[in-house]
Design a protein that fits this description.
Elements: H1 2-15, H2 23-53, H3 65-73, E1 76-80, E2 88-90, E3 101-109, E4 113-118, E5 127-129, E6 145-148, E7 154-162, E8 165-168, E9 182-186, E10 192-196, H4 199-206, E11 219-223, E12 226-230, E13 240-246, E14 255-257, E15 263-265, H5 282-297, H6 300-311, H7 315-318
Parallel strand pairs: 10-11
Antiparallel strand pairs: 1-13, 2-12, 3-10, 3-13, 4-9, 5-8, 6-7, 6-9, 7-8, 11-12, 14-15
Helix pairs in contact: 1-5, 2-3, 2-5, 5-6
């Protein structure tokens, strides 16, 4: 879609010889335009809920909420958090989870750890081997969570085949000679949601045996780039998962330079990234990018054209009353 958007923008600009937008400038405008539309989804969703409460929204083909919810849910992900120190875990980021959190929906914990250790012995594909283990006595069952605490990869138990070997649903430990990766196994049925509390409140909660966070009712506080879990025994890699809406990936129109120096679209490059918005928002991207172009080349007509086109959005999508 990104090439179609760029072609539309250039076509509109070149009609009256308003100028040329370089690939680098286009990519900057595309990033901002996508982010604007992405943030509008949340306010539009709120408007649809209010409209439903006021009986201003229909059902079936007139259901406005469902398409918006589906679009938002395409950015909803669940990832294991990377441990920082003690009972602190890093907030999702490009470094730790490969994407950034726009809105943290909930935090899930596996408070009961069945066992942990270091892999040993010759690894078999889709298996965890530990020659010093005694897996049959730990109450491990199918579906329990296995984490490679060294690589942070996660899998589930298929079956316990012996005291020293567990069959897994995916291959998270290197095969062949052991590489001494750490592992931890958590009870799947212990999964629970942690409550978010303020820093001032957690001190008060911890001071009482009646209100202190427990394995059944854990809590967490937000501290800059880390989340601190309570009780403090929740401190192992793989023990905490975040469910969050991520930021859309930064779009990038990639190209190769032709003999005359003009750029030609090339999506085979490793850093190519298309827009992550639905196809029906293509016209919004064009109009918003035109606004930026108009400001860049100091042509008010271009900016006004982009703004005027946005005013023509259908009310079923913008929910403008």
């Amino acid at each position: 879609m990104i090439n179609e958007v760029r072609n539309a923008v250039l076509s509109i600009l070149n009609k009256n010889n308003y100028g040329y937008i370089s690939p680098s400038d286009f990519n900057l405008y595309a990033k901002n335009a996508q982010m604007e539309i992405y943030e509008e989804y949340y306010s539009s969703y709120n408007k649809t809920i209010n409209a439903e409460n006021q009986r201003g929204s229909g059902t079936d083909y007139a259901d406005i909420e469902s398409p918006l919810a589906e679009t938002l849910e395409s950015f909803l992900v669940t990832n294991s958090l990377t441990k920082s120190t003690d009972n602190k875990f890093f907030v999702p980021s490009l470094v730790t989870t490969g994407d950034e959190s726009y809105y943290l929906l909930k935090l899930l914990c596996y408070p009961i750890m069945l066992t942990s250790g270091i892999q040993s012995g010759t690894e078999v594909t889709n298996n965890l081997v530990c020659t010093t283990g005694n897996f049959t006595t730990y109450g491990i069952i199918s579906g329990d969570i296995v984490v490679n605490t060294t690589t942070k990869a996660t899998s589930t138990v298929v079956s316990v085949t012996s005291n020293t070997q567990i069959l897994l649903s995916s291959n998270i430990f290197p095969t062949g000679a052991p590489t001494n990766n750490g592992f931890a196994i958590f009870k799947a049925s212990s999964l629970t949601e942690a409550d978010k509390v303020s820093m001032g409140k957690i001190t008060m909660l911890n001071s009482s045996n009646l209100t202190a966070p427990s394995n059944e009712y854990p809590s967490y506080v937000y501290q800059g780039s880390v989340l601190e879990l309570y009780p403090s025994t929740i401190s192992t890699q793989g023990q905490v998962q975040a469910v969050y809406f991520r930021f859309p990936k930064v779009p990038k129109w990639t190209y190769i330079s032709l003999v005359d120096g003009s750029p030609s679209f090339d999506q085979s490059q490793t850093d190519y990234q298309d827009f992550e918005l639905p196809t029906e928002d293509e016209y919004k991207l064009v109009t918003k990018i035109l606004e930026y172009c108009g400001m860049s080349i100091r042509e008010s007509e271009v900016t006004q054209f982009g703004m005027a086109q946005q005013q023509h959005e259908q009310p079923t999508f913008s929910m403008q009353q």
